[in-house]
Amino acid sequence: MVAALFVIDVQNDFTEGGALGVAGGAAVAGDITNYLWANAEHYCVVIASRDWHDANNDNGGHFATDAEPNFVDTWPVHCVANTDGAEYHPALNTQQISAHVRKGQGVPAYSIFEGVTDDGEALPALLDRLEIDRIDIAGLATDYCVLASALDAVATGRKVTVFTDLIAGVAPESSAAALVTMKQAGIMLVPDDE
Ligand code: VGL
């Protein structure tokens, strides 16, 4: 099988100390780097996404500007394009990342499939061009961008695996529910603690 690895939104704002930091986020960054040292050669392509929001608007209601964020569909200002919060976490080694996808310019965009690469290529075109038939997924956050990306990936008909040791979520309940949803959609969880 020809495999791709997705590294979802391992950005400063989604790690401890960031605008929307998830517990365990920084550890995930380092653990993905270690995983890549050992396994990058098994992937035809390693594709990393970044949330890349506009500074001067609420990005389609994604940023809570007039009220407190509900942490479900409104959020604190995060991952504003060209700010430190939008950069990859320093523990993520980007040398072995071969395609960079940005998403969320002016809109909410949880799935990597909503973005395009820095070369302007849409993700489905890239996956077809490289004849990818297996997609592995790691990154942040389990209950939002990992979930949305994994569901879109499996909907393309490819074999999809989420590495449960290489993800971290916003909230425990929604993260547990996300794992159930992914499994029901035919996504493999590795390891699977159930
Ligand atoms: C994400 C909340 C808001 C994520 C993005 O990367 O999972 N979560 N925007």
UniProtKB/TrEMBL annotation:
Statement: the UniProt record of this protein carries the keyword Ribonucleoprotein: no
E.C. numbers: 3.5.1.19
InterPro entries on file: Isochorismatase-like_dom, Isochorismatase-like_sf, Isochorismatase_Nicotinamidase
TM spans (from-to): none
Top-level taxonomic group: Bacteria
Keywords of the record: Hydrolase, Metal-binding, Pyridine nucleotide biosynthesis
Every Isochorismatase-like domain range: 3-188
Pfam families registered for this protein in UniProt: Isochorismatase
Top-level class of the enzyme under EC nomenclature: hydrolase
Signal peptide region: none
Pathways per UniProt: Cofactor biosynthesis; nicotinate biosynthesis; nicotinate from nicotinamide: step 1/1
Record Gene3D superfamilies: Isochorismatase-like
UniProt KW Membrane keyword: no
UniProt similarity note: Belongs to the isochorismatase family.
Protein name, UniProt field: nicotinamidase
Protein's organism: Rhodoglobus aureus
